[in-house]
Design brief:
Blueprint (H helix, E strand, L loop, with lengths): L2 H9 L23 E5 L2 E4 L4 E4 L14 H12 L9 H13 L5 E5 L2 H16 L3 E5 L37 H4 L2 E4 L4 H10 L4 E6 L15 H12 L2 E5 L11 H6 L5 E4 L10 E5 L1 H4 L18 H14 L4 H23 L3 E6 L2 E6 L10 H7 L2 H13 L2 E2 L12 E2 L6 H18 L1
Parallel strand pairs: 3-13, 5-6, 5-7, 7-8, 8-9
Antiparallel strand pairs: 1-2, 2-3, 4-10, 9-10, 11-12, 12-14
């Protein structure tokens, strides 16, 4: 019996399902993959196997594992006493760095997780506007809470104007929460206009992933984000870009700088803390000052802005502004993305890889690149079984891709600055072998 099996049997005695988060049960593997250690771009499991990593721990590890600058920041926080629930000079320093980098950021508030940040952003939008309804897009993900976790994986019925019925992504949701959440197809500006008109004067916010990495690499059509921005301005709606995943992966200003469209609020997390639990809302002063202690909207937590994640995040924000940081990421991305797409063609496997910055999705079964603008078409064409087979073979060949086992569309994968060109060459050799076995 492997050490993996021993640990899984033991874990089931005290952890629900043998793991502390449902998504950590690696569906293609049949149990959690137990790691012993990590360094740079590599993971090492409890049976001694090495993996080139393309999961990024679901997003935070843009700077690599065991990064010496992150480790030094952790050590500094320990030396200072690891303060919790106090303001320090580093809190303000981090906020200033975020404001320097993110176009919409006049003010910042810190949180512990992406789910906390999106929950507070929606509350803030309601407090600022005095309205209740939130409009979201199917296939997008904004955290695991009742205020917004609908229609990420499941597909609801669409009515005659384009509004899509709410389908919760979890049991236990009271119906009343969904009454103020409305779903629309991404990239369909006409449907969005019609839904806004149906609820005219009642919409507090439109929230979106500007790039839907939670559904692979679900891109906006040319001009679409600007059209949504104009609609929000015209109707007095708060525009929220959820950049928990896109943040700091596409040049420093993230998706809003890449597309040249500035939201009213943005949520940040994952790469912000380089592996530490930290998230943030950054936004325009007129909206952000609705937060207490200036305004009436409360949102905080005992460990929000704790010293250790803040000091680490300061170091991470310095790294993303250094010369060559994004040049290197784009060089690695070009090599990986072009190489995998060449292998799709070489082996005659239907599908392709679509990536931007340091995140990507692998679209088995989806041959038309324009299809990735339409979540429903991808859902129809995506070969879930082939994707799971690829991931099983990748694990066997020392490439770590994660399989949450619930998504009807591609999942997000990524890499970071610790990945070398040699890592990508080796990964492409292994994927070449895997693709030859998928025929």
């Amino acid at each position: 019996m492997s050490q993996h099996q021993v640990l899984f049997q033991k874990a089931q005695d005290h952890l629900v399902g043998g793991c502390c988060a449902g998504g950590r049960l690696h569906k293609a593997y049949g149990q959690p993959v137990y790691m012993q250690s990590a360094d740079g771009s590599k993971l090492y499991d409890v049976d001694g196997k090495e993996y080139i990593e393309f999961h990024s721990s679901a997003g935070p590890m843009l700077f690599g594992y065991n990064n010496p600058r992150v480790n030094a920041a952790v050590a500094k926080a320990l030396e200072l006493g690891n303060l919790v629930n106090f303001e320090t000079e580093y809190t303000a320093e981090l906020a200033g760095l975020i404001c320097d980098i993110i176009p919409c950021a006049d003010l910042v508030r810190l949180f512990n997780s992406g789910s906390e940040a999106t929950m507070a952003a929606l509350r803030l939008a309601r407090g600022y506007t005095g309205k209740d309804i939130i409009i979201r897009f199917e296939g997008h993900f904004h955290g695991m809470h009742e205020l917004i976790w609908y229609n990420h994986s499941p597909m609801g019925q669409m009515d005659e104007i384009g509004e899509i019925e709410n389908v919760p992504n979890s049991g236990g949701f009271a119906k009343c929460f969904g009454d103020v959440v409305k779903n629309v197809s991404f990239n369909d500006i006409d449907a969005l206009e019609r839904v806004v008109k149906r609820y005219k004067g009642e919409v507090a916010a439109i929230i979106m992933e500007p790039i839907g990495f939670n559904s692979g690499c679900y891109l906006p059509k040319d001009g679409y984000l600007a059209q949504v921005r104009e609609l929000c301005d015209r109707e007095g709606i708060v525009l929220i870009f959820d950049e928990i995943i896109t943040g700091f992966r596409i040049r420093p200003g993230s998706a809003q700088a890449y597309y040249g469209v500035t939201p009213d609020l943005t949520t940040l997390g994952k790469a912000l803390g380089g592996g530490m639990p930290i998230a943030a809302i950054a936004g325009k002063r007129k909206v952000m000052e609705t937060f207490n202690p200036i305004g009436t909207v409360g949102a905080s937590g005992t460990t929000s802005g704790a010293l250790m994640p803040v000091i680490v995040a300061v170091e991470c924000m310095k790294m993303v502004q250094e010369p060559g940081f994004f040049d290197y990421l784009e060089k690695i991305g070009d090599k990986l993305y072009g190489g995998v797409n060449d292998l799709f063609e070489k082996h005659g496997i239907p599908g392709h890889l679509r990536g931007l910055g340091a995140k990507f999705g692998i679209y088995f079964g989806v041959e038309d690149w324009d299809t990735v603008y339409d979540w429903r078409k991808v859902r129809e064409q995506f070969n879930r079984e082939r994707a799971a087979e690829f991931i099983r073979k990748a694990i066997a060949n020392g490439l770590y891709f994660h399989d949450y086992g619930m998504s009807p569309v591609p999942q997000h994968n990524g890499f970071g600055v610790a990945h070398t060109e040699e890592d990508i060459d080796e990964a492409l050799e292994r994927i070449d072998k895997i693709f030859s076995e998928l025929k």
